[in-house]
Every structure is written in structure tokens, then in C-alpha cells.
Description:
56% of the residues lie in helices and 15% in strands. The protein is α+β, with helices and mostly antiparallel strands. The chain has a five-stranded mixed beta sheet with strand order 2-3-5-1-4, with helices on both faces.
Amino acid sequence: MNKKTKKRVQGVAVFVVFLALATTIFVFNKKENRSGAPDFKASTQKFQSMKMINKAQVQFSSENLKDAKAYIESIVDNKAIKSIEQVDQPAFGSYLFIIPKGSLHQVVEEMGTKGKVLSRTTMTDTSLVNLDLDVEQGRLLSYEKEMRDLDQVRFPSEMQIRRKESLHGLIAESRTKLDRLQDAENLLLYITAVTLEKRNSFAVIIRDFSFSFLMWLGLYFVGVVLVYYGTKLLMLLLNMMGIKGLGISGTDYAASYNYGGFKNYSDRYGYGYGQKRKTKRIYKEKPKPTEEEEK
């Protein structure tokens, strides 16, 4: 291997090493800085807007999130009175369902065996606590009787029309309150599940970084070899097809097809920058005049 070829090989090797190092750093930074922030905004708003006397929210995390989510889904299937919403994403999950009020403690304890319970919050809707079921039922019956009486009026006045519109809203609100009061022994449970973040040691980080670097280095090395020999083979095929002048430096195919004819011509006849063509002048002797011409 001559010096010129050796320098080229060294340059390509250095380029491949730096490319693999840059790729490894980029991948690691992307992995470390990946926010992966679960979006619980929509499910949280739904949980807050639902009217029930008893509510609870549990934030849960696990190293094996897939198994943890499967376990939560089994809780929903076996213990939930009603499943309202389930969101299953690769990096997180959220579950909104109704369970008996007394089973909350058991559910939280079982979840603790599958991961870590980050927080547990229980709340009570004070707007429904002071309501009495019998009173609310009597109020609903009164609204419905008044609505039936107004429906029997053939030509209602403007005031009666406005009252009917108001009664529609009052009846719907009263029925909603009754539904929630009847669920006084139940609880609306909202569970959010995320991946438990692990703090890797310095040795683990070095190991993962080295493994990634070697992997990218091998991939780029194989890529360079494939590109080199692939290009060489392509040039050989083109030369065999009669497309000349496309050989690769360092092979015998390029030497046979040199289109530097003008340069050779210039070297042969002395053309070049700042040079003039050398010409050779030949002087022939004139014929001597005859005696008659001299006279």
C-alpha cells in the first residue's frame, strides 16, 4: 500500500469514527432529553367535571408498565361497577371507573405489589353532601307535575313558555343529583400509570454508551465497505458495457482510457502557458540566372 492510498484509508477511518461518535451522542441526548410527558389533561378534566359524592385519584408508576397496565385492567374488569374511560398508550395509561367505596383500600394495596403508588387523594363533593334523597325526589316530582300541567295548556302565554324552558333545566339537574345521591356508597376512581424512572449508575451509562458506539461504528464500517466495492463493481460493469473513461483511481481500468489528448499534443509540439511554437525555417537557394538573362 503506497503512502497516498494509506492516507486515504486513514482519512476514511477517522471520518467513520467521528460519525459513529456523533451519532451515539445524538441518540443518547435524544434518549435522555426525551420528555415523554404523559398527557392526562383531557382525562383529568373529565374526572373533575363528573359529579359524584365520593372521588379518589391514584398516581401509580411501575418499571414494567405493560404488566402494571394489564393488572389495572383486570381490576376494572373484576371490581368496577362501571367503566367510564380507559386510555392505553405505550408510555402511560389512565383509567376512570366506579367501584364500591369500601374497596378502595384493597385496590391501592394490590397496586402497591405491582409498582409504586406515588400519591393517593380522596375527595368529597360538598355540593351533594348536604342534599337529602327524599327531599330531592319530592322536588323532582313537583317539577314533573308542573311540566305536565303546562303541557295541557293549548295556547300558553309567553311567561308559561319561559317557565317550561326553565323546568326542562331544573328537571335534568334534579335527576343528575338523584343519580349521584344513589351512588353515595360508590366511588369514582381515577388512576394514572406511568413508567418508573430508573437512575442508572455511571458504570451502566458507560456500558450503554460503549455498546451503542461500537454498534454504530460497525454499521458505518460495513456501509463504507459496501459503498466502495459496490462503486468499484459498477464502474467495472460500465466499462464492460463500453462506457469508457469512468474507471476508479487505483485500478487498471482507468489507465486505458485517457482523454488527455490535448495535453499530449501540447507537450509534443511545445504549446503551453507563456511559450511560443518553435518553427523550423528552411531556406532554399535561388537558381542561378542563365547567360541570356544576365544580358
